[in-house]
């Protein structure tokens, strides 16, 4: 159906192979037959958790992100380990980062947050029936958790205080889910 838009890999190399990411450089054939190159990041994928407390508030994190040299407001999230099921990863990350566990989990959707230069995919889950516990942060991981209402979170997005794409998309999903307009996948 979209074959007239497809680019074909001819060959390539790994330009950088790190502990977490790989950068690939491929030589490709464009739909018109000409040759070009694509450089992109290979990422193992991640989960995002939308933790909804029984009182309707949401659980968020504040975490410093080195590439942008600032603290961001985000939903809990984390990298999927090799062979790890997406739901198991979401459950692990919620407990590690926030200490909370959830009784009810629902898959919401998959998003691709940087399609021009990365194959990263984010699997979004709604977590309800939360029970507080003690975080188990990884070595070198520093963050704070806080709660807010969905309307206040949306105001933070509107004011430009929340710019993280996964958190913005999650906030919009939560607004639709809690209003009854949308159901998780």
Automatic annotation (TrEMBL):
InterPro entries reported in the protein's UniProt record: NUDIX_hydrolase-like_dom_sf, NUDIX_hydrolase_CS, NUDIX_hydrolase_dom
Name of this chain's protein: GDP-mannose pyrophosphatase
Keywords: Hydrolase
Pfam families recorded: NUDIX
Organism: Massilia niabensis
Domain (Nudix hydrolase) ranges: 41-170
PROSITE patterns according to UniProt: NUDIX, NUDIX_BOX
Catalyzed reactions: GDP-alpha-D-mannose + H2O = alpha-D-mannose 1-phosphate + GMP + 2 H(+)
Family label: Belongs to the Nudix hydrolase family. NudK subfamily.
Cofactor(s) the protein requires to work: Mg(2+)
Keyword Mitochondrion: no
Gene3D superfamilies linked: Nucleoside Triphosphate Pyrophosphohydrolase
């Amino acid at each position: 159906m979209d074959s007239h838009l497809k680019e074909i890999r001819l060959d390539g190399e790994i330009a950088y192979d790190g502990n977490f990411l790989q950068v690939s450089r491929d030589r490709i054939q464009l739909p018109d037959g000409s040759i070009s190159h694509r450089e992109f990041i290979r990422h193992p994928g991640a989960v995002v958790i939308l933790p909804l407390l029984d009182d309707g508030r949401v659980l968020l994190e504040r975490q410093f992100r080195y590439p942008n040299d600032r603290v961001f407001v985000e939903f809990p999230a984390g990298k999927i380990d090799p062979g790890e099921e997406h739901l198991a990863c979401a459950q692990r990350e919620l407990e590690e980062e926030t200490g909370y566990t959830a009784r009810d989990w629902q898959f919401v959707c998959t998003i691709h947050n940087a399609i021009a230069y990365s194959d990263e995919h984010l699997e979004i889950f709604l977590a309800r029936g939360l029970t507080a516990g003690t975080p188990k942060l990884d070595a070198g991981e520093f963050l704070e958790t806080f709660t807010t209402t969905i309307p206040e979170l949306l105001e933070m997005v509107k004011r430009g205080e929340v710019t993280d794409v996964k958190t913005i998309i999650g906030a919009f999903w939560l607004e639709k889910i809690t209003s009854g307009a949308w159901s998780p996948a």
